[in-house]
Specification:
single chain; alpha/beta; binds zinc ion
Length: 382
């Protein structure tokens, strides 16, 4: 059966038998020829309907035989504007140190940033996220004072990047762990537990300082309860809430995938761990509650971290926050694993970088914090 015959038969079948103006089936002699045609079509359609429906539903290959039609199968395709590139900023202006556990990633001082970023901006880099790394001895304290030091690495970098790359969108991670003597993400009580009220007050001060220095987006990663609301209120009070994005690390899980980051940022806790404020890996319901809470408190973007082991959480975030952009952080351990797998010959690096990132997008994210960003700027060019 030709395709055109099939279409006309199916259309005929949908319409039913020929009728007169009153809608009654025509059975007069004058309609005999059309009835014959109808009978033939019905017989033909009945005879082939099983095979037709079977054929149509089983024939998928045609839909993705071409590279472009394959790309169309994705709900969303990776673009350069989805990527945020993490930068570790040292307080030592001329430092440029390769981080052994984080392939191809460096900790850089202020003087090394522009030469590194200029070619990336030319290739289409749209956004960076800044992590300050104080390296000078005796600069850290119990309050994380260097975090919002006007002469510290983050605030200096915000000003530098705003002046050199006016179109670059600057996100600042907001936490205290890189700046506290104990390496935890807030201010501690005497017993070593987080003092939530003091921590939130301090974290929101730091966020405000970054915003006032020129950051486009502040991204609290500390996981203290209530910090999104506190940050929003301080931005409103300062009269700048209308121009600052608050991206909350809403669902940040504790686990073993942050090791290379801690090497880079020098943020390993000096005692204990972060299990009492970061989420337990099995805590899907808790993550949903944290996401809902942060949306309620005024977050503009919600983030899930890590990414590939938490695709269900990304999907939940998109469902709960369907009116918000969802970001995912492919963390240092994920990045290092992909490099290690490629080095061991398990898979091709570029193919796996795309596959893992496309999985993150498929789950629901439209923003990806990725150490692969410089690579993607080249790979997406072709
Ligand atoms: Zn932290």
């Amino acid at each position: 059966m030709s395709f055109s015959t099939l279409v006309s038969d199916l259309a005929f079948r949908d319409r039913g038998p020929p009728t007169d103006l009153n809608g009654s089936a025509i059975s007069k002699p004058s309609a005999i020829s059309r009835n014959v045609s109808y009978a033939r079509s019905t017989t033909s359609t009945n005879a082939t309907s099983v095979s037709i429906s079977g054929d149509i539903s089983s024939q998928l290959h045609g839909g993705y035989s071409h590279p472009l039609s394959r790309a169309w199968q994705a709900d969303r395709q990776l673009t350069k504007s989805m990527l945020i590139y993490p930068l570790f900023i040292s307080d030592s202006p001329d430092e440029e140190t390769l981080i052994p556990s984080l392939p191809n990633q460096h900790r850089r001082g202020l003087n090394k940033l522009i030469p590194h970023l200029a070619p990336l901006v030319r290739k289409g880099l749209r956004s960076v996220i800044l992590f300050g790394v104080p390296t000078a001895p005796n600069t850290k304290d119990a309050l994380g004072t260097p975090a919002d030091d006007p002469d510290g690495p983050v605030i200096q970098t915000i000003r530098l990047l705003r002046s050199k790359f006016p179109s670059l969108f600057i996100v600042t991670d907001v936490c205290l762990c890189e700046y506290t003597s104990h390496g935890h993400c807030g201010i501690l009580r005497d017993d070593g537990s987080l003092n939530n009220a003091l921590s939130v007050d301090r974290i929101s001060d730091v966020a405000l300082a970054y915003a006032q220095a020129g950051a486009h987006c502040v991204a609290p990663s500390d996981m203290n309860d209530g910090r999104i609301k506190a940050i929003k209120l301080k931005l409103i009070e300062a009269g700048i809430a209308h121009q600052i994005v608050v991206m909350s690390y809403s669902a940040k899980f504790s686990g073993c995938l942050y090791g290379p980051f801690r090497d880079a940022a020098g943020s390993c806790p000096s005692f204990g761990d972060r299990k009492c404020y970061q989420l337990p890996p099995g805590g899907r319901g808790l993550a949903r509650r944290a996401i809902a809470r942060d949306i309620q408190e005024g977050a503009d973007i919600i983030m899930v971290k890590p990414a590939s082991s938490y695709l269900d959480i990304i999907s939940d975030a998109k469902e709960i926050g369907r009116d918000l952009p969802v970001a995912a952080y492919q963390v240092s351990g994920e990045f290092a694993m992909i490099h290690a797998g490629a080095k061991a010959g398990v898979f091709d690096l570029k193919t796996m970088a795309f596959e893992s990132t496309e999985g993150i997008l498929r789950a629901g994210a439209t923003i990806v914090v990725s150490y692969f960003t410089p690579d993607f700027l080249d790979w997406l060019e072709n």
